[in-house]
Fold each of these.
Amino acid sequence: MLEELGISYDLAPVDMLKGEHKHPDYLKVHPLGALPAIEDDSGPLFESAAIIMQLADKYPEKKLAPPVGSYERGEYYQWILFAMTEMEPHLVTIAQHTRFLPEAERSTDAVARASKRFQTVAAALEARMKGRDFIVGNTFSAADVVLGGVLYFAKLMKQLDDDLPGVNTYANKTLNRPAAQKGYGTQQG
Ligand SMILES: N[C@@H](CCC(=O)N[C@@H](CS)C(=O)NCC(=O)O)C(=O)O
């Protein structure tokens, strides 16, 4: 999002494999010790979609959010919350049970259940993307930044199969944007 806005920022890497995200200093920024978080002149903020929506509103001249009160603004909230509440939690479950939890606490059943639900939810996004380039209206918005981030996570978790061609095309287009390539280091086929 910062790259899309073209504003300068300093990166503060947090090494999760070393547990730096649970350090007391970082817990002052994010009480759950999760990533990402930002700090600007106004103070710290966590929750990726909240950060993205706040930045879109803070730089209105970049036109990355539909006008407040418009129908498109409603759709913008709808798809952002869809990404964050219906898609992302299943990916977090898959990540925890394949990478982050101690092996003894991992459950293949939990992964299977999360993956099944993710596929059901992704099918709704597949239907939405039929004949569309962007999730809301016909221009790029912060909602595409949110969806792009979640779909990037889904790709890492190997959840975007060939039976989701529209979602794959959308994810690749979003992640091939120069800002995403700079931000995530992505180059999708
Ligand atoms: N809903 C949160 C999810 C944050 C989240 O779970 N981040 C992961 C990394 S992608 C994390 O920090 N996990 C470590 C933990 O929760 O202890 C957001 O989108 O910001």
Note: Helices lie at 2-5, 24-27, 48-58, 71-100, 108-129, 142-156, 165-175, 178-184.
Amino acid sequence: MHMSIRVAVSGASGYVGGEVLRVFSAHPDVEFGALTAHSSAGDALGAHQPHLRHLAERVVVETTPENLAGHDVVVLALPHGASAEIAAQLPPETLVIDCGADHRLESAQAWAEYYGGDHAGTWPYGMPELITPTGHQRDALPGTKRIAVPGCNVTAVTLGLQPGVAAGVVDPSDVVAVLANGYSGAGKKLAVPYLASEALGSAQPYAVGGSHRHIPEIVQNLTSAGAADVRLSFTPTLVPMARGILATVTAPLATGVNVEAVRAAWEDAYADEPFVHLLPEGQWPTTAATLGANTALIQVAVDGKAGRVVVVAAIDNLVKGTAGAALQSMNVALGLPETTGLTTIGVAP
Ligand SMILES: NC(=O)c1ccc[n+]([C@@H]2O[C@H](COP(=O)([O-])OP(=O)(O)OC[C@H]3O[C@@H](n4cnc5c(N)ncnc54)[C@H](OP(=O)(O)O)[C@@H]3O)[C@@H](O)[C@H]2O)c1
């Protein structure tokens, strides 16, 4: 028997909002209520999301508590700051899923340092696979009415490295992460670095030198997985693709650990995970193999000469990195099978 879940999507004209609409459309119980945004209010959705033909005639309305009232679920896909403001005006019985950063961090100090302004508080974190001191984050989600969806880079780095941290086979005090990122990660904004003439045929680093806002969230997650002391060097690089993140994460091999123990750590961590796949030895993740799918593809190797474990993780930033995580967490929160409506079938090449 199907239940009916009435979902409002705020930020419906943006990249994440569009992907939430696409991914949630495959859920058998979801029906869409209000589609809200800001400057595009009054427009037909088809003007902003031409790939969503089934919703093309729907009219986008302004993001207000009144327009978002009367739904079982409200998904916020808004710039950070905007989501906390509207979330504070939504009733406690509504399941609110925030794809922005406002409610992810536990530390108000880290929020002030990386984002600035007042910390809006901490919501249950929407990464079911996150290893926690007592099990997994999915254990904390049933029945919750508030979910903070993780950052996309955070998902790639956390899912990549956490098995080694939890098993004690890597030293988390010297983690280096370098990422190749598709441009949709920056949202639908106009800016010179995002012009085709700058982007095509070029790779551009950004937020170099420890300033990226996802750093404290990754540290928070690796601490959850068991790290006592995390030091992270994190460098993203825009590369000419619309979607996808390829994260290469390295950390020193812990003393006395052999190659078999490293592989076993990743195998054990993800043997039962429906959406996180350790590839067969020697096969490396590609972003293309994750596009449109709620999958994280992972490979791990030991660089004996460097004395480091090297992990490569690929995700689609808009699916496993956002909209898929939102739906997966919604399922757990509502007591539905976690995989309902979610696909591991990608689009390639
Ligand atoms: N892009 C990613 O890969 C990704 C991944 C994970 C998380 N996120 C997070 O998801 C959120 C949305 O990102 P995005 O990439 O979808 O950005 P985007 O493409 O720029 O879309 C932003 C959306 O927010 C709406 N909006 C802007 N200001 C608003 C306001 N003051 N009140 C109400 N609505 C407002 C916009 O509406 P109008 O167009 O009508 O003005 C648009 O629908 C951000 O917090 C981002 O950090 C993004």
Note: The pocket of NAP is lined by residues 11-17, 37-40, 63, 77-80, 82, 99-101, 151-152, 184-185, 187-189, 317-318, 321-322 (CB under 6 Å).
Amino acid sequence: MNNPHVQEQGEQSKIPIGISSCLIGEKVRFDSGHKNNTYITKTLNEYFQFKPFCPEVSIGLGIPREPIRLVSDELDGEVRCIGTKDPDLDVTAELSSCAESQFHWVSELSGYIFKKDSPSCGMERVKVYTKNNPTRSGVGVYASAILQAFPNLPVEEEGRLGDTRLRENFIKRVFIYKRWQDLNKSQWSKKSLVDFHARHKLIFMSHNQTKTRELGQLVSQLGSVDLQDLCSQYITAVTDILRKPTNTKNHTNVLKHIQGYLKRSLEVDDKAELEHTIEQYRLGYLPLIVPITILRHHFRKHPDPYIEQSYYMQPHPRELMLQNTL
Ligand code: SF4
């Protein structure tokens, strides 16, 4: 069985990913230190070309510098980014406009990895100080502007990449988004959208079957609505589907659906073994890679064009072993 993903990976260059500079070992933090993340710099580096950026250095805060933090105004509740020692040091506007002046290169990215907890780069649960205890309700000022401007861009924090499901989800989204961007550059046609949908449909089903049906209905409007409008609605809907990671129940449903393509090809004992393996996966005794490996083995002997072109069984490079932990 051919694997379309592997074929393409051999031909394309690394995928451009934005990243908070300190995560790749650049000494740009307020204390002149860094937060090098070895999974990023040693493993993901094989597939991603990182574009580092430090907004605090960019706005001229210097290294070392006074730390800044998010503070909620007592009167109007507005959140501002100010110095921890000098409350007159307010860099909220500078960080926002700094983000806006990066949009030209961020628009070329296929993903962004932010530093967690940072009042500039954190994408969620950043501490917001008030008179009382801080609450984890903030978003870094720079990250917030990027998230708003690029709502379909796959984003993640380095801390969350330690969670196997979130990690797998982010990396899968990056590869899907990159393929979408490549098609976007070469002008959409009805055929390219239908092909894109067909090749990713099983992945979408593994996230949310109801929303995947709705997505299919959207694609079925092809010909009766403006193609660019439809593509724009489509990627928004895809982002919504992929935002929440997969779960075992949905994967089990997809595995059984794929098994259906082999119903006339398998011997009784092979069929029983496959069913047993999917059930063992459902019960949590086996990782996803096991039923997928067996399915791939059977489809090598009994090829099916729809399954062959689908990215479901290998949505990212095998060497990352992301299906071994699902
Ligand atoms: S978290 Fe962001 S602002 Fe802070 S040092 Fe890292 S890149 Fe710079």
Note: Residues 6-162 form one domain.
Amino acid sequence: MRISLHLNGVPHAGDAEPRTSLADFIRERGLTGTKVGCEQGACGACTVQVDGEPVRACLMLAVQADGTSVRTVEGLAAGGEELHPLQRTFHEEHALQCGFCTAGILMTLDAFLRDTPDPTGEQIREALSGNLCRCTGYEGMVRAVAKSRRPNV
Ligand code: FES
Ligand code: FES
């Protein structure tokens, strides 16, 4: 099936088998920052934003994304910026180790912070509760999120 969508702001048309997941569709186009872990909607590694909302791309079919705007970790930093503030503070606060979960977590948190621009630690932990990380213990992530909102503190 022929589908058209915006990928990180760039119009894109492509063919997708009816059963191709959005995650596979994205990765087949070279955007391999989006990772696929459980393929069952449980781990959050594949999270991207579809029309601004976090979505588990392993559970969404590519054909369901027809006509939408999809943002992946490759499109997270604003034009001209090398890193998004969250990417910078994740680095500074050692909030990742193997990095397999990181793209999904960043896309989840970016959407969360749009709705909750000054979150408490508890709200940050709640926002992270659907994304599994088996390396870090999450404390660095909580610090990184807080620091991204108050870079001078
Ligand atoms: S790979 Fe999609 S939720 Fe785990
Ligand atoms: S950094 Fe390894 S799974 Fe999260």
Note: Helices lie at 22-28, 85-92, 102-115, 121-128, 139-149.
